[in-house]
Amino acid sequence: MTDAETTDAGFSGRTALPVADAAALTERIAANVERVIVGQRDTIEHILVAILARGHLLLDDVPGVGKTMLARAIARSVDCSFKRVQFTPDLLPSDVTGVSVFNQKTREFEFQAGPVFTNLLLGDEINRAPPKTQSALLEAMEETQVTVDGVTRPLPDPFTVIATQNDVEVGRTYELPVAEIDRFMKKLQLGYPDEGAETEMLGRVVGDHPIESLDPVATVEDLKRARKTVAEVAVAEPVRSYVTRLAGYTRERAELGVSPRGSIALLRASQARAVLDEREYVLPDDVQMEAESVLSHRIIAGGTDGGRAMVDEALESVPVE
Q: What fold is seen in the domain 233-321?
């Protein structure tokens, strides 16, 4: 990462955690979330990778598998501000970003901040709102700021969006714009739990739900320092070239290939994965582990799961040099 990128990311003057401490931090958070969410260790780690890599997440699955509960458990594990927006067809962009209201006493307009002004924003069932409302998140997700009535206001640091959606109810949801999908670092699916995990979950929710007794195991400052740790992980030129060639492979063969934003997301996610493995440098293995969740949703290709198939093809065809 360059000095300019580090400063832009809000890291100036902050001390990074040692890699071992950052890895221990993610382990504490993951273990805490597992007190609520059973059988989803890999998904929890993918979410933590995205948060540490300054990315946003889209959880796409059928209703009732724990998407919202997972986001809440992550938020409660870190002592940070958390807000939830239930996306509906009548939701307006100002309901997300905020609005200027005229104060009769002062005779001036005052800005009333919307729920986007938080550390962790849960956009629940985001595809139930029309594209105009969804677009209210574009500037926030890309630039960590919101512009309302010509005034630009910075969002809290850190800022992460976890959005959920399901495509079961055809005709009652809206397709997410490509520009919005590309702003999500990862798109994940939880799937149904296996028999053992579901039985364990049922035992836990008899009586009080475990989410109610979940206490934070990390602070916002811990998270900021861990993000700086990730940003300082070394990425050698051959690894950067490997990421570039993977993206190029998809652009040459898909209707819509991986954007440069996608390449950056894959690189940053690989840095975070290295930290989880207590390494100060990225290996091609990190890139390969992160490629599917970071790249698949950015690709438009033939078939019902064309993006994932294209990523698998790229990983098999593009050599590591």
A: Helicase, Ruva Protein; domain 3 (1.10.8)
